[in-house]
Design a protein that fits this description.
mainly alpha; Leucine-rich Repeat Variant; two-stranded parallel sheet; 53 helices
């Protein structure tokens, strides 16, 4: 064989007698992943193995068959008996030498009847770590622990792991006599031939791999070998890739795989890494990992040999040795890894297998990872910069595996987690910052106390404590995020509910303990929201929602969580709706969260109305609705009711007439699903405000809004303020305490925001001024502000100002405010001539309480204006004009009565005729004011004036009234001419009453004066009425015309001459 040492050299691989039968490998039940020996420094020749530790005995029992007695050490190595006996405490390299020693023949090179020994360490090496200061002092004195010589006084009690020096192991690599130059050249030549050709048979492959492994030993002292290896590394990687790809993926038929692993490990010890760097090397690492971890279960691997027992290799032994070689290869990568970059790469490649759904794959990966961590923890020598970027992910993964339903996986993970803790302690101390001395000291003390309670013998029962109590203290914010992300991925493990449950508990505990040290909260929220649609188990969904609740209740993260949740499509799907409705937050935090959500909506109301509505506004409105429906924030809802109510009312105003196309939807939310046309910003706002009233027990207010169609008014563009007025009045009437809270809230906010904001706030505020509590408001917040709005350019603000002034004037004890309002009388009187009915009515209602304070000139001018409004086409204007006119007459002082008498007399005929109006309210008010006028004139009206029946039904009563007013007004006013002018009124009852009144008056006319003045003008008007479309009017007009003509034709009686002359004297000539 090329490259085989001469007789003068130390034998590289001792031969095994061909007579030896294959090694007896016990057939275990189940599919165990056999333990891999850890890398250990070599012991001196003749050294006896250390006593068995608990962890080693447990590991062997876990990976051995039931046939092995409890006290028996089952074989776990593949080294020759002689060499193993000499190096019972030796390193992984001894094991590989034994492997090659057993390759003497094709049929019996693997297994031996000699005892195979598991290399293990005593409890002093792998047991619980002594953290006492005395132990630390010994470590300080060790020159190999340079980092600990600079310990600060206040951190002198850092827990450390006994470190093993690499010097002994490195010496062992060169203890054998160096190869002669000729041997080295032959090895290089044989390897070179492979580069130029190809490997066809198994023997050629093994020969190549052994030669490469043997040659690697000369790297430390042979420059030719070093140059050759480094210049041909790419080719070596390529050939190893080819060799691995030629191996059947689902079976294990020969030792080529394990020899590849041994070769890679040998080169790794010489700092020639074939698995790190280029893409080809990464691919080789990935393929190697898959070739071992993805093998079928041990039971399936053994089946072919049970069918064909003539196979040259024992499948069970071959599997065990291959797996051991793989584990030793991984350990060789971290023995000298001061920056932990190799560990990071190993974790990356092992990650998918640690999360495999297949039990045997997960068990193999966990066992390998545990051995890697154990090896690293015992040979850790860290130097900055550290490049291990997956600590948080690895901690979470190992913690989840601790709760694996497969017992073997859980135990391996627990052991690995123990060693990972020690690695973390050293790592965090190495990267410590001076400003964090105290926090690090507390963390170290906590860790020390924990490890004092739980040593490695008890560690299998408490892995979660490590992950939850200890690791959380040391993980950075980025590592905490990795932990959470990995734990969330564990929730998707639908095959193993117990893993899901463990992930949920782990997640909640970590978030509770880590408090405010997370940074990538949006990413965490993104994963959580995506998981909600996958997980259907109620308990797990509750745990996820609890996690969100913990994050959102931290003031530092509240806005971050809200921003993420508000960036989802609306209406929210059932999963997000459930999240909003079932948030579990402590009572003190509910108000804060609801307030921050409310502020998101309020900020959107400050933008110009010309721009598109912000998507956050609609999303926040829908979120508030979902929160109200869930009713978990009831106390906070009551506390923030004023702010919530007004903000949602303003959102309603903003949303009127908008569709979702008018909302600035982020491009990231554009979904293929078309949104229904019924989904509008307005519908979200309306459902939110309705739910708010119901959840705050405002049932009566809700009923009033429904009864008076208040919701329809709120949704209308032109009647929105009417809906606001109705809701404000309902609240003031049914729940004055809440109404007062809203009023005090609005006082400083009335001039903020855009137009919709101001109008809605002002509308609610002016209606609340009806409350007696409004009297306590300083005038600067009430009257002065209303006066400013009265002169506002907007018609709606003028309306609001007048409504507010009207409500203020209704209070009796508001002398100061009334004086301010009194100064507005000229403006209010001008408002009586406005074309808008509402302005006129409001002005009249404001003036009414101020009539008694007016001077005579203003009063007389106002009465003339009111008199002109008696015939207004707007019924309410006519009605209030009469009311105000009657109040004005009552307020006239005695000294001014003579001056105002003519105005009162002129109002008699209109009031008398409007008493026949079809509008009952106007008719009754006319009679009432007519009575006031009669009292002013000291007249006593006949009772027929108060008759409710129309005059044309009871002409006798009408004639009595006519006689009374004809007699009383004789010589004072031209009552006939004034009555005749109303014959052209637009309202039929008024025209009919006027024509009837003219006919009755003609009976008592002075014949001579009538002939002198003429009756043509009366007859012409009555003749025109004969063509009126109303039949009843034509009949009455004909009767009146006949009466006038009759009076004209008859001679004047003597007794009537005097009276008629006086009557006709007032007619125009």
């Amino acid at each position: 064989l090329a490259g085989t040492p001469t007789s003068s050299q130390s034998p590289v691989r001792p031969s095994i007698p061909e007579s030896l039968s294959p090694c007896p490998c016990p057939a275990g039940k189940g599919d165990p992943a056999w333990p891999a020996p850890e890398w250990r420094p070599p012991a001196s020749h003749g050294q006896r193995p250390a006593p068995q530790g608990h962890a080693q005995r447990l590991t062997r029992r876990r990976h051995s068959s039931e046939q092995v007695p409890p006290e028996y050490d089952p074989p776990a190595d593949f080294r020759s008996g002689k060499l193993l006996q000499e190096r019972a405490g030796g390193d992984a390299r001894d094991s590989r030498q034994a492997l090659r020693a057993g390759m003497g023949s094709r049929h019996s090179r693997i297994c031996s009847q000699e005892e195979v020994v598991i290399p293990y360490a005593s409890d002093n090496d792998s047991g619980s770590v002594d953290l006492q200061p005395s132990n630390l002092e010994d470590i300080k004195k060790d020159p190999s622990n340079i980092e600990l010589t600079v310990l600060d006084a206040d951190l002198s009690d850092i827990p450390t792991l006994p470190q093993e020096s690499l010097s002994g192991s490195l010496e062992s690599l060169t203890q054998e006599e160096p190869l002669k130059e000729a041997s080295t050249e032959r090895l290089i030549q044989s390897i070179q031939e492979v580069f130029n050709g190809e490997l066809k048979g198994e023997l050629e492959k093994l020969t190549f791999l052994r030669s490469l492994s043997t040659l690697s030993r000369t790297l430390s002292y042979d420059e030719t070998t070093e140059s050759f290896i480094h210049s041909h590394t790419a080719k070596i990687v390529h050939i190893l890739n080819v060799l691995m790809q030629e191996e059947p993926p689902n079976s294990l038929l020969n030792p080529v795989r394990q020899e590849v692993f041994v070769t890679i490990a040998d080169l790794s010890y010489q700092d020639v890494h074939l698995l790190f760097g280029s893409e080809d090397r990464t691919e080789l690492f990935s393929f190697i990992t898959k070739s071992v971890i993805a093998l079928p279960s041990v039971r399936n691997l053994l089946q072919p040999q049970e069918v064909m027992p003539s196979e040259p290799y024992s499948s069970e032994c071959l599997y065990r040795q291959t797996f051991q070689a793989f584990s030793e290869m991984l350990q060789s990568l971290v023995v000298k890894d001061p920056h932990l970059e190799n560990l990071d790469t190993i974790c990356k490649h092992m990650d998918p297998w640690l999360q495999s759904v297949k039990d045997h794959e997960r068990e193999r990966a966990t066992a390998s990872m545990a051995q890697v961590l154990k090896c690293l923890s015992r040979h850790l020598s860290l130097k900055p910069p550290l490049r291990f970027q997956r600590l948080g992910h690895l901690v979470a993964l190992m913690a989840l595996l601790c709760g694996d339903p497969l017992k073997e996986v859980a135990e391996e993970a627990a052991e690995g987690t123990h060693y990972l803790l020690h690695i973390t302690l050293r790592l965090k101390y190495t990267t410590r910052k001076k400003k964090n001395h105290q926090s690090l000291r507390r963390a170290l003390k906590k860790c020390q106390e924990f490890l004092d309670l739980y040593d490695i013998k008890q560690f299998y029962s408490c892995p979660f404590n490590i992950a939850q109590v200890v690791f959380e203290v040391f993980l950075s914010s980025n590592e905490l995020c990795q932990f959470v992300m990995t734990t969330l991925d564990g929730l998707k493990n639908l095959k193993h509910p117990c893993t899901q449950q463990s992930a949920g508990e782990l997640l909640i505990t970590l978030v509770k303990n880590a408090e405010s040290r997370f940074e990538k909260v949006p990413e965490i929220m993104g994963v959580i929201c995506s998981q909600l649609s996958v997980i259907s188990q109620p308990s797990l969904r509750e745990q996820i929602i609890t996690t969100v609740s913990l994050f959102i209740s931290r003031p530092k993260y509240t806005d971050t969580v809200l921003n993420h949740l508000l960036c989802h499509p609306i209406p929210y799907d059932r999963h997000l709706a459930e999240l909003w409705r079932t948030l579990e937050v402590e009572l003190p935090s509910t108000t804060w969260i609801l307030w921050r959500l409310l502020r998101k909506l309020q900020k959107c109301h400050n933008v110009p109305t010309e721009e598109k509505m912000a998507y956050v506004a609609v999303a926040a409105t829908d979120a508030l609705y979902e929160v109200f429906v869930g009713n978990r924030f009831q106390a906070a809802t009551f506390r923030l009711f004023p702010q919530l109510l007004m903000t949602l009312l303003i959102q309603v105003h903003h949303s009127i007439g908008l569709t979702m196309s008018d909302v600035a939807i982020p491009s990231s939310l554009c979904t293929e699903q078309e949104m229904s046309s019924e989904v509008t910003p307005l519908c979200f706002a309306m459902q939110a405000i309705k739910t708010l009233l119901l959840r705050t027990l405002c049932w009566q207010e809700f009923s009033i809004m429904e009864k008076h169609k208040g919701w329809t008014l709120l949704e209308g563009k032109d009647c929105h303020l009417q809906g606001v007025f109705l809701l404000a009045n309902a609240l003031l009437e049914r729940n004055h305490l809440l109404a007062h809270k809203v009023m005090y809230l609005l006082v400083p906010l009335l001039n903020r925001g855009n137009d919709e904001h101001k109008l809605t706030s002002a509308g609610f505020f002016v209606e609340l001024l009806r409350s007696p509590l409004a009297r306590r408001l300083p005038s600067i917040y009430s009257t002065v502000r209303l006066i400013e709005w009265l002169h506002h350019g907007s018609y709606l603000f003028r309306i609001l100002a007048l409504r507010g002034l009207r409500n203020l004037t209704r209070h009796q004890e508001m002398d100061t405010q009334r004086e301010d309002i009194k100064s507005l009388l000229p403006c209010l009187l001008d408002s009586l001539c406005e074309p808008d009915e509402e302005i006129v009515l409001l002005a009249m209602q404001i003036i009414l309480p101020l009539v008694g304070t007016m001077d005579f000139t203003t009063l007389a001018a106002m009465m003339r204006t009111l008199f002109s409004l008696f015939g207004d086409a707007r019924p309410d204007v006519r009605h209030f004009a009469m009311v105000l006119f009657g109040a004005s007459i009552r307020s006239v002082k005695y000294s001014d009565k003579k001056i105002i008498e003519n105005q009162v007399l002129d109002s008699l005929v209109p009031l008398l005729l409007y008493s026949q109006d079809e509008n009952v309210t106007i008719a009754e008010e006319s009679k009432r004011v007519l009575t006031i006028c009669a009292q002013f004139l000291k007249w006593k009206l006949p009772q027929e004036v108060y008759c409710k029946d129309p005059w044309y039904i009871k002409p006798a009563e009408a004639e009595t009234i006519c006689k009374f007013f004809g007699k009383k007004c004789m010589g004072k006013i031209n009552i006939l001419a004034q009555t005749l002018t109303y014959s052209k009124n637009t309202k039929l009852p008024i025209r009919r009453s006027a024509v009837l009144f003219v006919g009755l008056l003609s009976k008592h006319m002075d014949h001579c004066e009538l002939m002198m003045k003429g009756t043509d003008w009366i007859e012409n008007d009555l003749t025109d009425l004969l063509h009126d479309p109303e039949p009843s009017l034509r009949v009455i007009a004909a009767q009146a015309l006949f009466q006038v003509q009759k009076v004209k034709a008859e001679p004047e009686p003597e007794q009537r001459v005097s009276w008629l002359r006086k009557l006709m004297g007032c007619l125009p000539t």
